[in-house]
Automatic annotation (TrEMBL):
This is Pyridoxamine 5'-phosphate oxidase family protein. It comes from Streptomyces flavochromogenes. Residues 1-21 are annotated as: Disordered. SUPFAM superfamilies: FMN-binding split barrel. Pfam families: PNPOx_N.
Length: 169
């Protein structure tokens, strides 16, 4: 995946007069540091499915893994459109991020090996995976790995000043 420089816009409808657009580099740093994300996929009947998971930011994309029989994996077979969100539960402080894009399966074993190392670096030894047959293998069995390069992302600064930044790729 090739990281791109997005068009960055502050939405004045949802921003304090003192707010300015947040640079994409600041959003990337927050995506890399965030520990928990919420993934939204679409069920075959059109209903949304939301679940928390962990993810790694690498080479311009968020990466997550899931068992092949889990609801999110089955949803992605029919519809690859996803949204990943992360942030803070506070109303008046912090920064929330929403990343919209398409989930693409990662099967290249060299890339998977690098991602497996990134999982351990970020989340510790409990998240060590072997790479085999185009997937992660761990104590829980097989895990398919997906990459989501942002198509559009939103950042919500909470507190003083509050603001909404949109990044389009």
């Amino acid at each position: 995946m090739n990281p791109q420089t997005p068009q960055t816009v502050l939405d004045p409808r949802y921003s304090d007069d003192k707010a300015g657009p947040v640079p994409w580099s600041a959003a990337e740093a927050r995506l890399a540091a965030a520990e928990v994300f919420w993934l939204t996929t679409v069920r075959p009947d059109g209903r949304p499915h939301v679940t928390p998971l962990i993810a790694v930011w690498s080479e311009g994309a968020l990466h997550f893994c899931t068992g092949p029989d889990e609801r999110k994996a089955r949803n992605l077979e029919a519809n690859t459109s996803v949204v990943l969100t992360t942030g803070t539960p506070a109303l008046d402080e912090g920064f929330d991020l929403v990343v919209e894009g398409e989930a693409a399966r990662v099967t290249d074993e060299d890339r998977l090996a690098a991602l497996a190392g990134a999982w351990v670096e970020k989340y510790g030894e409990d998240w060590r995976f072997e790479v085999r047959d185009g997937a992660f293998r761990g104590d829980g069995g097989t895990a398919l790995v997906f990459a989501v390069a942002p198509r559009t992302a939103f950042g919500f600064a909470k507190g003083d000043p509050f603001g909404q930044t949109r990044w389009r790729f």
